[in-house]
Amino acid sequence: MGIPAMISRRLFGIAFGTGAAVLLAGALQAQAQTVKIGVILTYSGRDAALGEQIDRSIDLFVKLHEKELPQGVKIELIKRDDTGVNPDLAKRLAQELVLRDKVQILTGGQWTPNAMAVAALTKEAKIPFVTMTAGGSAVTLQSPYVVRTGWTLWQTSYPLGEWAAKQGWKNGYTVVSDFAPGHDGEAAFTKSFTENGGKIIGSVRIPLKTTDYLPYFQKIKDMNPDVVYVFNPGGPQATAFMKAFDDVGITKSNIKLIGPGDITASDELPNMGKRALGVITMLQYSPAATRKANVDFVAAWKKEYGANTVPNYFAAAGWDGMRAIFDVIKAQNGKIDPDATMKLLRQWKNPNSPRGPVRIDEHGDIVQNLYMRRVEEKDGVLANVEFATIEQVGDPWKVLNKK
C-alpha cells in the first residue's frame, strides 16, 4: 500500500472515529434528556382517596401518551405526600423538590392552602406550577408562574346562585367546609342568589376535622329554607355530609340540596346510595357524559384500574394538567425554560378534553363548560347526569374584581 493510501485510510479512521464519538455523545445526551416533575398530593390520611384520583390520572396519562414525547426525552415523576391540608409541609416539600431534586415543573396542588404556599415559593424560584385541583380563586394571583387546570369555587357556585333564584326559591341557607374554597363558594352563591331576588336566612362554616354534622343540619331543618347550598371537598366527607342530611330528614323533605359537584362526587355515589337521588349540582365534569373523549377516558380508566372504579372531577383535572405539561414539553423539545413554559401555558388549549373544550386564560385560570347535573339511577347505577350546559366560563371572581 502506498503512502497516500495509508494517509487516506488513517484520516478516514480518525474522521470515522470522531464522527462516531460525536454521534455517541449526541445519543447519550438525548437519552439523558429527562424532565423532572415534582408532584405534591395527599397520599395518606382521611382524604387520600382524592389524591389517589389525581395520582391515578397522572400515571394513566403518562402510560398512554409517553410515546408522544420527542425522541430521547423522558419524564421523571417525583412524588411527595402533603398528608392533607398542611401548607407548611407542602412548602417544605416544594423547596426540597426544587433545591435537592432539581425538578423543572411542579404540579399537584390538591388543597388551596397548600397550593397558596407552593405558589408563593414559585415566584422566587421561577418554577412553573400547574395546580390541578385547588379551587380558591386567589391561588393564581400568588405568582406569575402558576396556572390551574381544575376549577374555582366561584366558577361552580356563582352561576348556581342565579339558577337557584330562577327556580322560584326565595330562602336559602349555606353550609360549607371552613377553608378558603368554602369561603369562596359561600360568597359566590350568596352574591348571585341575592342579586337575583333570593335571601340567605342562615349560614354555617364547618371545620374540616369535624365528624359530627347532625347538630348543624338539625338547625337547618328547623329553619326550613327552600334551598341549601352545600360545599365540602368531596371524597369520604361528601358521603358523611349526605348521610347526615338523610339522618335528620332533609333528603326526605321539601328542602332542596344543591351545590358544586364536590358534594356528589361520582366515585362516592355508591357509598351515598339512594339518599343522593335528585341532588342537583354544577360542575365541569361527570364520568357519565357521552362525549367521545370522555367515553374513551372512562374506558381506559376502567381497563387500568378495574371495572368497578370511576374517574371523578379530580381525575379529569389531573388528566388535563398532564396534557398541558406534555404539550409544553413537546413544544420546547424537552428543554424547559420557565418563562417560555409559562407563556405557552397561558395560551394552552385542548378542544377535546373529557370535560369538553378547555383553555387557560391570561389570569392562569381554566375556561371551560359548566354542566348542571342531577343524581339519577342509570342502568342500575347512580350517576351525575348532565341536563344543561353553560358554555366557556372563566373565573367570575377575576371578572367581578377586575381593576
Question: How would you portray this structure in words?
Answer:
The chain has 403 residues and is α/β, with parallel strands linked by helices. It folds into two domains: 34-151 and 291-364, Rossmann fold, CATH 3.40.50.2300; 154-283 and 370-400, Response regulator (Rossmann fold). It contains 13 helices and 14 strands. Strands 6, 7, 8, 9, 10, 11, 12, 13 and 14 form a nine-stranded mixed sheet that branches. Strands 2-1-3-4-5 form a five-stranded parallel sheet, with helices on both faces. Strand 1, helix 2 (48-65) and strand 2 (73-81) form a beta-alpha-beta unit. The radius of gyration is 25 Å and the shape is globular. The protein starts with a helix and ends with a helix. The model is unreliable at 1-30 (pLDDT under 50).
Any chance you could write out the topology, listing elements then pairs?
Layout: H1 3-31, E1 33-41, H2 48-65, E2 73-81, H3 87-99, E3 105-108, H4 112-125, E4 129-131, E5 146-148, H5 153-166, E6 171-177, H6 180-195, E7 199-206, H7 214-223, E8 227-231, H8 236-247, E9 256-260, H9 269-272, E10 280-283, H10 292-305, H11 313-331, H12 338-345, E11 349-353, E12 356-360, E13 366-378, E14 381-393, H13 396-400
Parallel strand pairs: 1-2, 1-3, 3-4, 4-5, 6-7, 6-8, 8-9, 9-10
Antiparallel strand pairs: 10-13, 11-12, 12-13, 13-14
Features:
Rossmann fold, 2 domains, alpha/beta, single chain, 403 residues
